[in-house]
Amino acid sequence: MAGPLPLGDPAPADGSLPSDLSVDPAVPFSAYLHVPFCRVRCGYCDFNTYTSGELRGAKQEDYASTLITEIDLAARVLADAGRLRPMDTVFFGGGTPTLLPAGDLARMLDAATDAFGLADGAEVTVEANPDTVTPEVVRTLADAGVTRLSIGMQSAVPHVLAALDRTHRPENVTTAVAAAKDAGLAVSVDLIYGAPGETLADWESSLDAALALESDHISAYALIIEDGTKLARQIRRGEVPMPDDDLQADMYELADARLGAAGFEWYEISNWARSEGERSRHNLAYWRGHDWWGFGPGAHSHVAGLRWWNVKHPAAYAQRLAAGESPAAGTERPDLESATLERVLLLSRIREGIAVADLAPAKRTRVAGLIADGLVDPAAAVRGRVQLTLRGRLLADAVVRELTD
Question: Start and end of every Radical SAM core domain (predicted)?
Fold first, then answer.
């Protein structure tokens, strides 16, 4: 289970938005549907997920109906706040969404579409573990309107998968990708690098295996040790080593080189796609600060600068909704300084970068120093954009600090 929820102001029991909130109908709207179930908790994961023994008072088979109740609440709240907008993107994340019957995921998507509408050409993604993907599952998802499957490959090397507590075999990924393609779905695969015991040669093998799948999109994330996880405890006890920053940097540079040579282009620090049309529009909605409603326990939402988050446990989530109450646990409205910091933090991560004009006047003069340090692309800066170089992507946090502190 994830750490504690952030502090914030109390959320209204009916879920209503502040009367002075101005919802812009021109801002795209997305939906995130959280499915908090996993068969096994991976040692590195701090997401809000639960194995069957941790549910205590919540039933997995009731989950779709419970989440649909929140969809109905959201439709009422947003209708009261202004014109409803069709969903530009929908993302089923987790946990493992495909632990639910595919028909349950289809019901949830149908309910959201009935409530908000689905924009023409909308992107609808479902995350999946390789060992939960079958031809029948993906056909049901495709028939329901899902357009994209994001498969948690993580590695192609058995001892690395074991270090991450992943339960699938490498060959499961190949069959999952083939099933998704046969159903007409776009495919993304997720990789993690820097696991205990993983070598640069291991990582190269995983990259080669991912490229051999001929997917449309590849994500590659450095392993981060999160407090409270099994892996953090193992490191604290000296059972496994802390990830090596220099090795992870080498792994990132290798990924960028191999993926670039294969025709993939980076568009966010940890994401590469074969073309602009194959980028994850849902994740770009987060980085660009669009509006979204997060459904499910622990899910976060953002509408017109207002943020809120739901209670974490599935039982508490279900109890709130059964009582006719919003599941929101807290809410906040970031001040101008916090909003500016977040905007720089998010936009600097993506290829298009942030406009120099959007920086505080006192920070614009620092761009020249970042160019001199090889962190920002000089040609882009001439065009008025702060775009990270490869070195800048490796030191993105330092760039953000320079542009905001």
Answer: 23-265
CA–chain centroid gap for 252, Å, is: 19
On the CB side of 185, how many CA atoms lie within 13 Å of its CA?
31
- Which CATH architecture does the domain made up of 29-287 adopt? Alpha-Beta Barrel (3.20)
The domains of the chain are located at: 29-287, 335-405
Q: Residue 141: what are its φ and ψ, rounded to 5°?
A: -65, -45
Tens-digit pLDDT profile for residues 36-67: 999 888 888 888 899 887 888 889 999 999 99
pLDDT score for 396: 97
Residue 173's DSSP bridge partners are none
Q: Is the pLDDT of residue 83 over 90?
A: no
Residue 113 CA to residue 288 CA, distance in Å, equals 23
Model pTM score: 0.95
User: What mean pLDDT is reported for the chain?
Assistant: 95
Q: How far, in Å, are 128, 152, 288 from residue 174 at the CA level? A: 13, 12, 33
Q: What is the pLDDT of residues 331-358, one digit of tens each?
A: 999 998 999 999 999 999 999 999 999 9
Task: Assess contact for 193 and 251: CB atoms under 8 A.
Answer: yes
Given a cut of 80, whether residue 133 has pLDDT beyond it is yes
Phi then psi for residue 94, to 5 deg, are: -165, -150
Calculate the alpha carbon distances from 205 to 42, 43, 211, 239 in Å. 22, 22, 10, 25
Q: Residue 95, preceding bond cis, omega within 30 degrees?
A: yes
Tell me the per-residue pLDDT of 160-205, one tens digit each, with 9 for 90 and over: 999 999 989 999 999 999 999 999 999 999 999 999 999 999 999 9
CA distances from residue 189 to 78, 272, 273, 285 in whole angstroms, order as listed: 34, 10, 11, 19
Kindly state the tokens that stand for 193: 């690098």
Residue 368 CA to residue 33 CA, distance in Å, equals 42
Nearest to 388 by CA among 358, 360, 346, 357: 346
Q: Are 157 and 251 in contact (CB under 8 A)?
A: no
Residue with token string 């807290």: 330
- What pLDDT was estimated at residue 6? 74
The rounded Cα 316 to chain-centroid distance in angstroms is 24
Identify the CA nearest to 246 among candidates 193, 305, 209, 169. 193
- pLDDT bucket at 2, cuts 50 / 70 / 90: low
Q: Phi first, then psi: what are they for 268, rounded to 5°?
A: -150, 155
